[in-house]
Design a protein that fits this description.
By secondary structure, the chain is of the alpha/beta class. Helix content is 40%, strand content 19%. It is built from twelve helices and nine strands. It is globular.
Length: 269
């Protein structure tokens, strides 16, 4: 199994990433990775899109139709597929990920630290407040990566989403949150790549200027997809629009595991 990192920058719009993720964009310019434009599935809500991105299924199939719909998925997803193939999984993320892919409802005392677990997520550090700082989140992920050397590792940041809801996309606060995530990734990405990790960086949905997402316009749906892997042809492919349904089968192929039932394969690799 080929070790792979997935970074989800919650609510990071395509145009905001292009403006503010300078180091990552420079790697694309020098053909060290590939960049695509994703058209997010609907509804463009967080819990729904977490399920869609990691199962490869639309909401009407996996059943997470709204942020208030809360149950643990029984269909195939990245964590279960990786575990079934004998891999080790880890996540530094919002507590909804634990509820969706391992067990729920989330209890902060019981579930914040889930280390040495027998569930779908082998090792997890979870948070529940949207203002959890990105530097703490990525430090949590680095602890999991260095301590357990998982095959599939998720880093999930909420800082951009929070500033978008408070101030709207395009605000100084929103743009600074994207910049801050970019600075952190610029410090981590060279080491990840040097150590042979494959890295996918994307978002779940966008955000409009009113601080809203869930709807159908491009501000709420257009998100970036950056891929750093020898299995992917490098370059800029922003005009090749794909949907968020491609993320799960892409990750399966990068990991070298069998895709889940119903996943649609798009020609990225």
């Amino acid at each position: 199994m080929d070790k792979t990192i997935l970074v989800i920058l919650d609510a990071c719009r395509f145009d905001a990433a292009k403006r503010n993720l300078g180091y990552i964009e420079s790697l694309i310019d020098y053909k060290k990775g590939a960049k695509y434009r994703l058209w997010g599935e609907l509804p463009s809500l967080s819990r729904t899109m977490y399920a869609t991105m990691l199962t490869g299924l639309p909401a009407w199939q996996h059943g997470i139709t709204d942020n208030e719909v809360n149950f643990t998925l029984t269909c195939d997803h990245l964590f279960s597929l990786c575990r079934r193939a004998g891999g080790v999984t880890a996540a530094a993320s919002y507590g909804w990920m634990s509820e969706l892919f391992d067990h729920g409802p989330f209890d902060l005392v019981r579930d914040r630290y889930q280390l040495e677990s027998e569930g779908n997520i082998s090792h997890g550090i979870f948070y529940v407040h949207d203002d959890y700082p990105d530097n703490h989140l990525f430090a949590d992920g680095e602890y999991l990566r260095k301590t357990y050397q998982p095959d599939f590792l998720l880093y999930h940041s909420m800082a951009i989403d929070r500033q978008g809801h408070l101030h709207g996309a395009g605000s100084v606060q929103y743009e600074k949150a994207v910049c801050e995530a970019g600075y952190i990734l610029a410090g981590l990405l060279p080491q990840w790549l040097k150590e042979g990790w494959q890295v996918v960086i994307t978002a779940d949905h966008g955000m409009n200027e009113m601080g809203i997402h869930g709807g159908t316009d491009s501000a709420q749906r257009e998100i970036p997809l950056y891929i750093f892997s020898d299995k992917v042809r490098p370059g800029r492919f922003e005009e090749q629009e794909m949907t968020g349904l491609c993320v799960a089968p892409l990750l399966c192929r990068l990991l070298g595991i069998t895709s889940g039932e119903g996943m649609i394969h798009e020609q990225i690799l």
